[in-house]
Write a structure and sequence with these properties.
The protein has 272 residues and is of the alpha/beta class. It has two domains: 164 residues, NAD(P)-binding Rossmann-like Domain (Rossmann fold, 3-Layer(aba) Sandwich), CATH 3.40.50; 91 residues, ProC C-terminal domain-like (ProC C-terminal domain-like fold, Orthogonal Bundle), CATH 1.10.3730.10. The protein has eleven helices and eight strands. The chain has an eight-stranded mixed beta sheet, sandwiched between helices. Helix 6 crosses helix 11.
């Protein structure tokens, strides 16, 4: 049976998306497929995802429309392999591609596919591995609102989706794409601080992780501005005020802004 959705690239992000789609019952297992070049990885995928089409190369007739959704391909390969993969997909008759390849403009993928294909560019982040990612999607030259709705439906299986013009994909990469690394750096620093103040590493980790998780939930569920919530915790001349003053003295706010700017510029440079 031809697949409704093919994922080209069975690495961490591709397999996370496949797992999310199965969990969400997005389509029957026999309507999903993975294209993966590496023999060992194909064997692992077959073990973890029985009943799903797994192949080494895309072939004409492998992808079909299921009548309810638009059929298409998710491109989840490394940037250096993206255009080669698109040329193979174009030769196999694929005309709709959702690319999660970092830093790869839709125009280059369109050219590799040939003709007037639909390309939707997406930037997910690593929390997609646990179904809690955020993805920004942008339509290429020939993408319609229906194509964007299809892409949003696919990526919603692993988290939240926002739509943005493609010119904003580099800032997205610098903010939410790289953002988990900034977050983990803060967690590392706070854990070390807890240990330095006499806590065990295990207790310090638990306190930091649950503080971060609870704070994120508070932001999400209340809808309050983060500055308002920060002020709620910061009593005049209190302990939190002392800590915030130390952070501001070290220009932590400015450092994060510079980090996002540097990552954004690097994303732009990779496309040149």
């Amino acid at each position: 049976m031809p697949a409704t959705l093919l994922i080209v690239g069975g690495g961490r992000m591709g397999s996370a998306l496949l797992g999310g789609l199965r969990k969400a019952a997005w389509a029957p297992d026999d309507a999903l497929g993975v294209i993966e070049l590496q023999d060992e990885r194909r064997a692992e995928l077959a073990l973890h995802f029985p009943g799903i089409l797994i192949s080494a190369v895309p072939e004409r007739g492998m992808l079909a429309d299921d009548g309810d959704r638009l059929a298409g391909v998710v491109l989840a390969v490394k940037p250096e392999a993206a255009e080669t993969a698109c040329r193979a997909l174009g030769a196999a008759g694929v005309r709709r591609v959702l690319s999660i390849v970092a830093g790869m403009p839709s125009a280059r993928l369109e050219a590799a596919l040939g003709g007037e294909p639909v390309v939707i560019r997406a930037m997910p982040n690593t929390p997609a591995l646990v179904g809690a990612g955020v993805t920004a999607i942008s339509g290429g030259s020939h993408a319609t609102s229906a194509d964007l709705a299809w892409a949003e439906d696919v990526m919603s299986a692993v988290g939240t989706v926002v739509r943005l013009p493609e010119r904003l994909q580099d800032p997205v990469t610098g903010l939410s794409g790289s953002g988990p690394a900034y977050f983990f750096l803060v967690v590392e620093a706070l854990m070390e601080a807890g240990v330095q103040m006499g806590l065990t590493r295990e207790v310090s980790r638990e306190l930091v992780v649950w503080t971060m998780l609870g704070s994120a939930m508070l932001l999400t569920e209340t809808g309050e501005d983060p500055g308002t919530l920060r002020a709620m915790v910061t009593s005049p001349a209190g302990t939190t005020a002392a800590g915030i003053r130390a952070l501001e003295f070290r220009a932590v706010r400015s450092a994060f802004m510079e980090a996002v700017a540097a990552a954004t510029e690097r994303a732009r440079a990779l496309q040149r």
